[in-house]
Amino acid sequence: xxxxxxxxxxxxxxxxxxxxxxxxxxxxxxxxxxxxxxxxxxxxxxxxxxxxxxxxxxxxxxxxxxxxxxxxxxxxxxxxxxxxxxxxxxxxxxxxxxxxxxxxxxxxxxxxxxxxxxxxxxxxxxxxxxxxxxxxxxxxxxxxxxxxxxxxxxxxxxxxxxxxxxxxxxxxxxxxxxxxxxxxxxxxxxxxxxxxxxxxxxxxxxxxxxxxxxxxxx
Length: 218
What we know:
seven-stranded mixed sheet; globular
């Protein structure tokens, strides 16, 4: 079987993406078609999918933000404009990862890495300073009665505990920066918490402007 590949999201992908998202997050309401269409209209270069011969197997969506406006605290709903990407700002130097998910049947087979590498390609090509995201902490629920989300995440970083999302992000070269409380309140496994992570673009040139090429080869 040919390994998956990544490409930019197209309008005809929307229905399949919603179906895939519902399978990945059965307890979290999926996006509606209008929101996905808005994201494509606002920032088409930032929306990518992974697929194989059988169809779509993953998705990563992003927008550009002025990070100083959001660094202290924010929820997913606030920073993404409830999924509309209204806060997309070409004056920013931060690629913000709004969503990423992989077909449950293919997790651990490199699809997530392809999507993360696709984001890093966007960051390099556009001369953005960094990628920032807030990742779920799905392993936290089992420890919530014993420790804070911050201590849980720290223990994952230290190697004392394992979290399927944060461990993957650390393996992908991201640095842990703290916990955002109330990030997705309906995410019961994470108790609404998310880990704030960052990847710094080693090729970033502050003397060059951010560029948004019409076509980006992923």
